[in-house]
């Protein structure tokens, strides 16, 4: 876009602020995106996301061995999450933006309970099993093979979104259009370092403990009453 074109686009400061509030990007990046999008805030968001993805790809090979352990305890203290997010320097790890990312990701995991970080983390066995289940379901309705394949592809994308953290839409994004991967990419573009979610663990009180059968629970209750 030429400087002459930029001069014709009047970008109100209020619009720049709204874009900053929605994306977390810097003032100059937001204004440039709005200029490129001719003042359309939704298109400007797309511009910022594309730039974030490009920046992330350029920095993906750089070693990120610093970072923080983020955590989140849900109200009532029944669900808790610990997550490790890496960056390249301790300086970036201590920024408010990076610490906010750690908190937001931990909170998101508490709410959505993903099984994997990336779709690449799924084994071929898991993928084959899911595809076979979806294909059998589609064939049971009498769909032809070419339609079955399309149905399977669509259901697999839904499976990725439900189970892979990077594919999920951030729960606090009111537009429901920003994935966790896009959120990370935007921060990479803003802070200038490679950033990645390495691992997480989600705890839920009582999870994995089999409930006692009624016949076993009754003697325990009697014993408690007699003590």
What does this entry look like structurally?
- By secondary structure, the chain is mainly alpha-helical.
- Among the domains are: about 1-60, Ubiquitin-associated (UBA) domain (Helicase, Ruva Protein, domain 3), CATH 1.10.8.10; about 125-160, GTP Cyclohydrolase I, Chain A, domain 1 (Orthogonal Bundle), CATH 1.10.286.
- It contains 10 helices and 3 strands.
- It has helices at about 5-10, 15-25, 25-35, 40-60, 90-95, 95-110, 125-140, 145-165, 180-190, 215-225, and strands at about 65-75, 80-85, 195-205.
- It has a 3-stranded antiparallel beta sheet with strand order 1-2-3.
- Strand 1 (about 65-75) and strand 2 form a beta hairpin.
- Helix 7 (about 125-140) crosses helix 8.
- The chain is globular and about 65 Å long.
- The model is unreliable at about 1-5 (pLDDT under 50).
């Amino acid at each position: 876009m030429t400087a002459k074109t930029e001069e014709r686009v009047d970008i109100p400061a209020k619009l720049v602020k709204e874009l900053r509030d929605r994306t977390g990007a810097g003032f100059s990046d937001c204004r440039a995106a709005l200029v490129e999008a001719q003042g359309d805030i939704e298109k400007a968001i797309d511009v910022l996301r594309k730039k974030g993805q490009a920046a992330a790809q350029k920095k993906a090979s750089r070693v990120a061995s610093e970072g923080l352990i983020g955590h989140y305890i849900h109200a009532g203290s029944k669900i808790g999450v610990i997550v490790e997010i890496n960056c390249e320097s301790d300086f970036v790890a201590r920024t408010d933006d990076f610490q906010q990312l750690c908190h937001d990701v931990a909170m998101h995991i508490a709410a959505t309970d993903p099984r994997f970080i990336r779709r690449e983390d799924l084994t071929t066995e898991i993928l084959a099993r899911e595809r076979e289940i979806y294909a059998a379901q589609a064939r049971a309705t009498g769909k032809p093979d070419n339609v079955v394949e399309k149905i399977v592809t669509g259901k697999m994308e839904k499976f990725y979104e439900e189970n892979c953290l990077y594919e999920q839409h951030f729960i606090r994004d009111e537009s429901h259009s920003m994935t966790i991967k896009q959120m990370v990419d935007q921060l990479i573009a803003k802070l200038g370092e490679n950033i990645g979610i390495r691992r997480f663990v989600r705890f839920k009180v009582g999870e994995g403990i089999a409930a006692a059968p009624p016949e076993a629970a009754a003697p325990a209750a009697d014993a408690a009453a007699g003590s």
